[in-house]
Amino acid sequence: MKIVLDTNVIIAAFASRGLCAELLEECLKNYEIILSEYILSEVIQKLITKICIPSRVAQEISNFLKEHATIVTPEDLPIIGTALAGKAQFLITGDKELLKLKMYRTVEIISPRKFWEKYIIKSG
């Protein structure tokens, strides 16, 4: 199964130990993660400016994600476009505006908690 982790989910995974960190671990083991350079650049920028992680460490995190994800180029709509370009079934996000959509074409838009409850707990 292919999934996109939105910037906010990735930031939360590296910022503290919690649901998003566990979700990232499970996704690295059991799913194909789809990302784009847009998402990766947002991750670097927010890790540095919001979480105050040194730029070298933020770049190492980006490199780690590149090694463990499929990188695609969205045609438009940088986040949803990443899911479409990568033929992902899920976009996991905390963005309330995206979550309101629930579906976009063939992509289910779901919160980290709902994805965890529906697909991680049941399969574990």
Question: How would you characterize this protein structure?
Answer:
The chain is an alpha/beta fold and 124 residues long. It has one domain (2-120): 5'-nuclease (Rossmann fold). It is built from 7 helices and 6 strands. It has helices at 7-15, 19-30, 37-49, 55-68, 78-85, 96-101, 112-120; strands spanning 2-5, 32-36, 69-72, 90-92, 103-104, 107-110. Strands 3-2-1-4-6-5 form a 6-stranded mixed β-sheet. The longest helix is centred in the middle third of the chain and has 14 residues, at 55-68. The protein is globular. The two termini are 15 Å apart.
Sequence-ordered SSE layout with sheet pairings:
Layout: E1 2-5, H1 7-15, H2 19-30, E2 32-36, H3 37-49, H4 55-68, E3 69-72, H5 78-85, E4 90-92, H6 96-101, E5 103-104, E6 107-110, H7 112-120
